[in-house]
Amino acid sequence: MTEHNQQSKNDKGRKVFSVSELTRLIKTVLEETFGAVWVEGEVSNLRRPSSGHYYFTIKDASAQISAVLFRGNQMGLKFQPKDGTLVRVFGQISVYEKSGNYQIIVRQMEEGGKGSLQAQFEALKERLQKEGLFDASRKKQIPMLPQHVGIVTSPTGAAIRDILNILKRRFPNLHLLLAPVKVQGEGAAEEIATAIDLLNEMGGLDVLIVGRGGGSLEDLWAFNEEIVARAIARSRLPVISAVGHEIDFTISDFVADLRAPTPSAAAELVVGRKDAFEDMLKEMSRRLVKSLEGSVLRLKNRLVAAGSSYVFKEPANMARHYRQKIDGLMVRVEHEIHGRLRETQQMLDDYSLRMVHEVKIRRQNSLQDVKRLTMQLKALNPLAVLNRGYSITRNSKGGIIRSVDDVRTGQRVTTRLARGTFESEVKKTE
Asked: Please, how many CA atoms are within 13 Å of residue 59, restricted to the half-sphere of its CB?
């Protein structure tokens, strides 16, 4: 038997893989067995070619594994990895077939040690949510015009400077009360919770701002503590949470009555409401003035038209008197409105909410004055006097006869009644 024939005979009972087949089989087994996993270790041999992908090794004291973080998965990366950095990565176990090396294709990467904090965050968030502390139904309304604002933050941080700059620049008459606390490190959560309780007990405040500037997850951790969440939840005062930057979320944000993306935004939310109300008040006042001026002008035009008619030629002096009275009323109404506007501007902090109601009352009173004057004008109409049974008698020249001395026997006169006229001859005078 030749050597070739012997080899063919031996191959009949064997399964022989090509390198590609075996590598592909190993890849399939790894991917199906492990799937996506979390791995923690130290970065080494970090490379970032022009493609923008990260290629590196994750190692510990006994072993290492190749890793790749493609550019499309780097959007949520909050730090710059480098050799020696302790990281925790989440990704798919796979095999790079060309080299035969197994690797992890990273989908998410965070600094080492943060994974446990994130797990604590998620656990507390889930528990408090189940208790209903995040429910919209328990959120308190932020007052429209807060005059007394409590602030819980560090007295030396950037957050308090940003808040004070905005509040004092826009509304320097606001009363601000700072409860100085640590915002990170040991004991910070306890100080924050105590300050929230203390400001509630003191009374006299309208709203609380609780927060700090940006930082790492560890820096913001005091606002993820349960003791702070409970203090915010039991606060009788509405609470605005203003922690970190816009992309940062803490447990305090979910429990608070309103979340502001930054401390500066919290200050703008407080004064922005007062700004909007002041603009609304000015617009309502402007409309009221325009409406009253229009009403008075229409009445004045009616009076002028009536004064030029035949009926009002005789009592022209009386018409002028009431015309002047209406002009005076218009001036008085305008003066009263402008006076009220100036007074409202000066006393906005104490009476701004009452102003809308007061303006409406003033408008109703002014309209009632206009209606009353209209009724008086109608009552002074000579035709209205004729309707009550009186008449106007004139001589042949059109002059009004006011006394028997104005006529003589045999003279013909014309009498105007409420409906029609008739002529008669004087037979006798007494």
From this structure: 12
